[in-house]
Backbone:
């Protein structure tokens, strides 16, 4: 029987994974997801825990959008619990290995499928919990389906939040304690303790719930051990539960110390408005009953669970009491949280961890319904009754009501996953105006019960009326009307296959001779079906223009970087509205794990950014820099201006609206001596410019960037638009690397420079990857682009049109 149950659970898990994959948007909805993914990416690619890739999010208007905190080193770290990011690592690394085989798999999109797996296993564990409580497998299957398809667990299965993992870990802790109370095996205590540790490392505040579960565990021990028990057995049990929990606590302390230098610092900004400051009744109203976030609006099925709770309490008093106490604790906790509504979210996301517990009382009406259906089936076999009326009678009023509420709840979840609820959240800010200028007053729309028609539940219908395709949240249906038919057909075939398998399993549970286990190929097929669908989905969803086109724009710039990357490179970006592109593709394109620092144009106004980029400048050999939607030398681009003053630009290329630059860094000049030049350049209409000194390395290797630092002075004011050229000449006098630039890398002009002062110009030369070894000549000079071609270059006293700076030996 256990094998048949496992097969049924496999069917359930596979079916739910297929549903979640088909309804996945393939993109982030909320910045919280981005912060968690940035941790997974950092650990998976570089073994770091920073979230510097989205450093720009630290300087936004609302504190609710600040998902990180600065460490002592100025780097950004997520304030979210690490468990969701860490436990998603094997899944991320699996797809990273596949992507590096040259298969076009988007790592961000692949990781977004992870919580679908977590939620599907939560449904299976809920089934197992029902069986532990004494209910049959048919009840367990239906309970798992109701949880997986009829609650807010479905929408959150498609987000990269920590709440799905919280739900699984808390339920696993309860299951372990319940199982131990029945058979006394110590492994169940280890499971409970390990799950509690995961819950703690997901959300530290869940320590309150863990304490309640531990109290339930003590009650289980007392119930099982009525008589005196040796101390060693108590110690063994305490070790089994407490050791993994203590280990999780130590991991959290170490994680905090690694990020912030203080084991007790979690990164939350309690001095900036965060904290438990909301009046509890206001928050409780919002979480439970308000049209805006009320749990019963977003999961009508839980009304049935609430109605069933008294009967559940009469049969399972300890477990029902546990659910009630957990509910009071979590609702009470988040009712006082300053952002109790959870930002842009679907329903009360902070209550997602309680969803499986709130579904558990449904075993009572489901068991009664199962008995009635079995009687009806037996009567039908005897009397060949096929009319609908006997079936309706068998269901009874309670069964019909449960079916109606379950159907309504599934429709609500289907609306949530089909249409992008964030679009309506934005509209609500106009319907119920929010003071965006004051971060601490930023809050949810003030909805009373009279505003129920403005509930996000009805808002999904409004979005549908405004245009289903335009507001779609399905990866296989794009806003431009494109349908990914391959995903649709493979998904349909997968669901039909699993539905047939589930139907056969259900019928087998009624067989007089007992259920039979299908053949091994059939069981393997059940495992393969969701994998095939996920692979198909990833292959097709990766073509979403949201993530760029392979040979255009941002992706082309990334491909260019990865074709030239080497150890010691770093990547800085000023493209905050396209952060998803490198997150999706960079890991698969590059063999070297480039540290990435994502800033906004004005980020260098902040000392933390200056500190971090100062460190990058000293620890990297080459810096890649990508901007998006900005012209060259944009005055507001403080990052580019800073690089022009501290690094040595070598490459400046455009890829549609994106610009790729590369810079050499000062450490490459650490051993280079300063050589005097004292050469004056003059032109027909240009005042003389004197080159004073040069500093450049005398040795290099192919694919290196050679930094060149020139000092010069204007002997008189210059009113011509002069430009520098720096070149590396081969033995035949043909340039193998060159750079053309204005003063200060374009942030200044000669007409604005003061005469008589020593000035510095920084330049870099990118050597080709296939450059042959040998001796090359480094030259520099000035030219006037407005003069005729023959007279553009300024001349030396000997008549030359460039100055030899020295030789570079390429090894």
Residues:
């Amino acid at each position: 029987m256990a094998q048949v149950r496992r097969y049924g659970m496999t069917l359930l898990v596979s079916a739910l994974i297929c549903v979640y994959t088909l309804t996945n948007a393939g993109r982030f909805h909320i910045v919280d997801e981005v912060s968690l993914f940035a941790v997974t990416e950092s650990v998976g690619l570089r073994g770091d825990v920073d979230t510097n890739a989205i450093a720009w999010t630290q300087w936004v208007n609302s504190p609710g959008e600040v998902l990180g905190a600065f460490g002592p080193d100025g780097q950004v770290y997520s304030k979210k619990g690490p468990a969701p990011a860490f436990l998603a690592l094997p899944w991320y690394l699996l797809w990273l290995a596949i992507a590096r085989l040259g298969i076009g798999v988007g790592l961000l999109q692949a990781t977004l499928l992870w919580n679908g797996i977590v939620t599907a296993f939560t449904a299976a564990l809920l089934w197992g919990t029902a069986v532990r409580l004494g209910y049959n497998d048919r009840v367990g299957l239906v309970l798992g389906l109701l949880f997986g398809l009829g609650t807010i667990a479905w929408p959150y299965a498609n987000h990269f939040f920590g709440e799905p993992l919280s739900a699984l870990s808390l339920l696993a802790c309860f299951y372990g304690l319940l199982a131990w109370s029945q058979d006394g095996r110590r492994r169940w205590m280890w499971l409970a303790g390990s799950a509690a540790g995961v819950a703690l490392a997901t959300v530290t505040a869940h320590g309150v719930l863990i304490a309640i579960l531990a109290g339930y565990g003590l009650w289980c021990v007392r119930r099982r051990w009525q008589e005196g028990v040796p101390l060693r057995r108590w110690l063994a049990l305490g070790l089994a539960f407490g050791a993994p929990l203590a280990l999780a606590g130590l991991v959290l302390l170490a994680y905090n110390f690694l990020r912030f230098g203080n084991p007790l610092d979690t990164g939350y900004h309690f001095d900036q408005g965060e904290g438990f400051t909301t009046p509890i009744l206001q928050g409780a109203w919002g979480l439970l009953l308000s049209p805006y976030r009320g749990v019963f609006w977003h999961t009508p099925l839980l009304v049935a669970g609430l109605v069933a709770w008294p009967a559940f309490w009469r049969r399972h008093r300890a477990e029902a009491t546990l659910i009630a106490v957990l509910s009071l604790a979590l609702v009470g906790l988040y009712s006082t949280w300053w952002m109790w509504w959870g930002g842009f979210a679907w329903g009360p996301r902070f209550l997602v961890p309680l969803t499986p517990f709130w579904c558990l009382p449904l075993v009572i009406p489901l068991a009664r319904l199962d008995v009635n259906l079995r009687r009806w089936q037996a009567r039908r076999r005897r009397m060949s009754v096929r009319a609908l009326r006997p079936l309706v009678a068998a269901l009874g009023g309670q069964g019909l009501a449960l079916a109606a509420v379950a159907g309504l709840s599934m429709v609500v979840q289907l609306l949530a996953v089909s249409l992008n609820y964030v679009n309506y959240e934005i509209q609500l800010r106009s319907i119920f105006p929010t003071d965006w200028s004051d971060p601490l007053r930023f809050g949810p729309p003030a909805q009373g019960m009279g505003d129920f028609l403005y509930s996000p539940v009805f808002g999904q219908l409004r979005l549908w009326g405004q245009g289903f395709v335009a507001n779609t949240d399905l990866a296989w249906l794009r806003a431009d009307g494109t349908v990914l038919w391959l995903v649709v057909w493979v998904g349909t075939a997968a669901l039909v296959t699993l539905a047939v398998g589930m139907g056969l399993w259900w019928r087998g549970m009624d067989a007089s001779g007992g259920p039979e286990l299908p053949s091994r190929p059939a069981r393997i097929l059940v495992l393969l079906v969701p994998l095939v669908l996920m692979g198909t989905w990833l292959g097709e969803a990766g073509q979403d223009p949201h993530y760029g086109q392979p040979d255009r724009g941002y992706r082309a710039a990334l491909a260019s970087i990865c074709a030239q990357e080497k150890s010691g490179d770093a990547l800085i970006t000023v493209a905050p509205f396209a952060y998803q592109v490198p997150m999706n593709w960079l890991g698969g394109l590059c063999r070297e794990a480039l540290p990435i620092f994502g800033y906004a144009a004005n980020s260098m106004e902040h000392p933390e950014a200056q500190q971090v980029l100062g460190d990058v400048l000293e620890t990297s050999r080459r810096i890649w820099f990508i901007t998006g939607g900005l012209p060259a030398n944009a005055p507001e681009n403080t990052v580019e201006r800073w690089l022009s003053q501290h690094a040595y630009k070598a490459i400046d290329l455009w890829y549609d609206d994106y610009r790729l630059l590369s810079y050499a860094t000062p450490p490459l000049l650490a051993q280079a001596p300063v050589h005097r030049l004292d050469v004056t350049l003059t032109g027909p209409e240009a005042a003389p410019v004197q080159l004073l000194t040069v500093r450049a390395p005398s040795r290099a290797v192919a694919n290196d960037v050679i930094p060149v630092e020139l000092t010069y002075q204007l002997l008189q004011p210059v009113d011509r638009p002069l430009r520098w050229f720096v070149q590396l000449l081969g033995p035949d006098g043909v340039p193998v690397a060159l750079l053309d630039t204005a003063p200060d890398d374009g942030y200044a002009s000669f007409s604005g420079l003061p005469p008589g002062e020593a000035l510095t110009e920084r330049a870099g030369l990118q050597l080709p990857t296939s450059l042959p070894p040998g001796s090359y000549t480094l030259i520099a000079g000035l030219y006037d682009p407005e003069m005729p071609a023959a007279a553009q270059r300024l001349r030396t006293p000997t008549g030359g049109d460039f100055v030899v700076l020295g030789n570079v030996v390429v090894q």
User: Anything to note?
Assistant: Residues 549-666 form a domain with the Rossmann fold fold (CATH 3.40.50). Residues 174 and 192 are 7 Å apart (CA to CA). The longest strand covers residues 705-714.
